[in-house]
Specification:
The complex is a heterodimer. By secondary structure, chain A is an alpha/beta fold. In chain A, 26% of the residues lie in helices and 29% in strands. In chain B, 49% of the residues are buried. The chains are: A alpha/beta, B alpha/beta. Bound molecules: flavin-adenine dinucleotide (FAD) (2 copies). One flavin-adenine dinucleotide (FAD) binds at residues 6-8, 25, 36, 38-39, 61-63, 90-93, 96, 114-115, 117-118, 120-121, 123-127, 229, 231-233, 236 of chain B.
Amino acid sequence: MPIVLIVAEQQPDGHLRKASLNAITAGKQLAEKAGGELHIAILGKDPAKVADELKATGAKAVHVGAAAELEHYLAETYAPALATLATELKADYVGMASTAQGKDLMPRLAARLKAAMATDITGLNGSGADITFTRPMWAGNVFAEVKLTTPVKVFTVRATEFAAAAGGQAAAEVKTFAPKVEASKTKFVEFKEVKSARPELTEARVVISGGRGTKGDFKEIEALADDLGAAVGASRAVCDAGWVPNDLQVGQTGKVVAPALYIAAGISGAIQHLAGMKSSKTIVAINKDAEAPIFQVADYGIVADLFKVLPELRAELAKLK
Amino acid sequence: MKILVTAKRVEDPESKIKVKPDGSGIVQEGLKYKINPFDEIGVEEGLRLVAKHQGEVVVVSIGGKEVQEQLRHALAMGAHRAVWVNHTGPLDQLGIAALIQKVAEKEKPDLVILGKQSIDDDQNQVGQYLAEFLGWGQATFASKVESLESAEEKNKEPAVKLTADKKAVQVVREVDNGLATLECQLPAVVTTDLRLNQPRYASLPGIMKAKSKPIEELTPEKLGVNVTPQIQVLKLSSPPARKAGIKVPDVATLVEKLRNEAKVV
Ligand SMILES: Cc1cc2nc3c(=O)[nH]c(=O)nc-3n(C[C@H](O)[C@H](O)[C@H](O)COP(=O)(O)OP(=O)(O)OC[C@H]3O[C@@H](n4cnc5c(N)ncnc54)[C@H](O)[C@@H]3O)c2cc1C
Ligand SMILES: Cc1cc2nc3c(=O)[nH]c(=O)nc-3n(C[C@H](O)[C@H](O)[C@H](O)COP(=O)(O)OP(=O)(O)OC[C@H]3O[C@@H](n4cnc5c(N)ncnc54)[C@H](O)[C@@H]3O)c2cc1C
C-alpha cells in the first residue's frame, strides 16, 4: 500500500507552523488518490506538544523523533533523520509545506532518497500509481502538470491552495523513533525574529500591502491593518528599500498569500507581485495611475491618492461598527 | 578563495510568457533571454569575496550553444573563467546537480554559489541537491541585514563573511519571521536571495576583456553523468484568468461593495 509521509514543522517558539496543516490536507488527498495511507513526521528537541496537536488530523500515525541535537533546525541534521524514517516506513511520497524550512530541507532529503521533486504544488491528479502534480512556473504565468518517475517522490505544498486539516477525527497512533543524528558541517549561530503583534501574513483573513507609492510611509496602512485585525504585506520595491522587513514581501520570490480580502495600495502590479496574491478571494487596488496593471486583477479599483483613500476608508469602515 | 558560480539562461523577467495552444511549451517568438537574476547576484557576491580575499571566480552554465551569452555576461562583470556544459534537451534538477557536482569535483572550489531559484521553473532545488551530493554544508536564501542604500553596499563588502581562520563562512539567511545566521565549514554551497547585493553593470572594458577570456567546453558524457530526466512535464496550461473587476468612484461605494457584494467587511 502506498505510504504518504508529511513532515510537520515546529516553529522556533515551539508551536506548530500552521502551513503544516495545509500540507497534511494535500497529503490526505494524495493518500486517497493513490489508495494508500497518510503518516506524519515531526522532529525537534521536544516536539511532543506539537505531536499532540497533530493527532487529530486524520493520519494513520504520527512519528515523533526527539533529540537534543535537533534543537535548531539544520538541513544537514534533519535530512538524514527523515531519510531513515522514510526508508523504514517505505514511504512512496514525502511532502512538506513550502515554508522557508520546507524549501531548504525537502530538496536535500530528496537528494538523499534519490528522488525527483516537485516544488510548491497546487494540485494533484490521477489515481493509483499514476499520480501527477500541478505546479506553477514563470511566476504563476504557467501551470505545469508533472510526473515524477523515481521510486520515491518528494514535493512541497503551496499552503494557500489546500484547506487546513481540521481536527475532530479519530486520534492517530503516536510512535516515537530514534532519529539518526549525523555530525553537521554547519553550525547554527543565531535566529533574529521579526516580532509583530499582527497576524501572520500567510494566515491572515485580510492583508493590506503597500508599494513604492507609499514612499516608505506605512502609517496609514498599519492603522487600517490594526482596525481590521489584518496583516501587512509589501512589494519587493519596499523591502529592497529597507522600509519594511524582508519577510513581508509578497510575490514570486516572497510569500504567497490568499486572504479573503487583499488591499494593494501604491503597488503597480508587476507580474512577480501578482504571483503572490492573485489567488486572494477579493482584491482591492488603490493607485493614482488608472493604467496600472494591478487593476487587471482587482475586483474593485479606486484611482486616487492612497494617502487620501486610506484615512477615508478607515472612517467609512468605522461607521459600520 | 576559489568560487564556482552558476549562470542559468532564463527568459527576461519582463517577458510576456504565453503557453502554446497544444500545451507542449511556451511561445518562443519575441522572447529575450538573460542570466537568472539570482545567479547574477551570485556572480556579484563571488566577485566581492575574491576582491577581498584574492582568488578566482569560475562560472558554469549548462545548456546549448546559446548559454555562452550568459557566460560572457558573467565574464564581462569580472568573472575569470567559464565552464560550459554542452547539452541540449531536457534536464531535471537531479541531472543539473549531478553535472555541477562533477564540475565542482574537478575545480575544487571553496564555495559554490547558486541562485535560490530560477525564475522560469521556480523549483528552488538545485543548490540543496548539490550540497547533499557533495556531502557539503548548505546555506540557502543568503541575504543581508542592511538596506541596499547602506554605506556598506556602496563599499561593496561581501555579505557572505569568511571567518577569521578562513575555514568557514557566516551567512545571514532570509527565513520565515526573521533572519537566521549559519556558519558553514568550507567547502560549502550557498544559494542567493534577492537582497544579498546589487549586481554591478558590466563595463565596456569588461565586455571587451570578456571576449578573450577562456570558456572550457564539457559534456555530460565527458563528465560521466547520465542526465536522463526523472521529471516528465506532461502539459503546460495558462492559469484561469480573474474576471475583470470594476473601478469605483469613491470610498463610500467601495465600502458598500465590500460589505454587500463581496461580503468581506
Ligand atoms: C527576479 C525578480 C523577482 C521579483 N520578485 C518580486 C516579488 O516577489 N514581489 C514583488 O512585489 N516584486 C518582485 N519583483 C519586482 C517587481 O518586478 C516590481 O519591480 C515590484 O513589484 C514593483 O513594486 P511596486 O509596485 O511597489 O513599485 P512600482 O512599480 O514603482 O509602483 C508604484 C505604484 O504606486 C503608484 N503610486 C505612486 N504614488 C501613489 C500614491 N500617492 N497613491 C496611490 N498610488 C501611488 C504608482 O502609480 C505605481 O503604480 C521581482 C523582480 C525580479 C526581477
Ligand atoms: C516547458 C518545460 C518542459 C520541461 N520538460 C522537462 C522534462 O520533460 N524533463 C525534465 O527533466 N525537465 C524538464 N524541464 C526542466 C525542469 O523543469 C527544470 O529545468 C529542472 O527541474 C531544474 O530546475 P530549475 O532550473 O528550476 O532549478 P532551480 O532549483 O530553481 O535553480 C536554482 C539554481 O540552480 C542553478 N541552475 C539551474 N539550472 C542551471 C543550468 N542549466 N545551468 C547552470 N545553473 C543552473 C542556477 O544557479 C539556479 O539559479 C522542463 C522545463 C520546462 C519549462
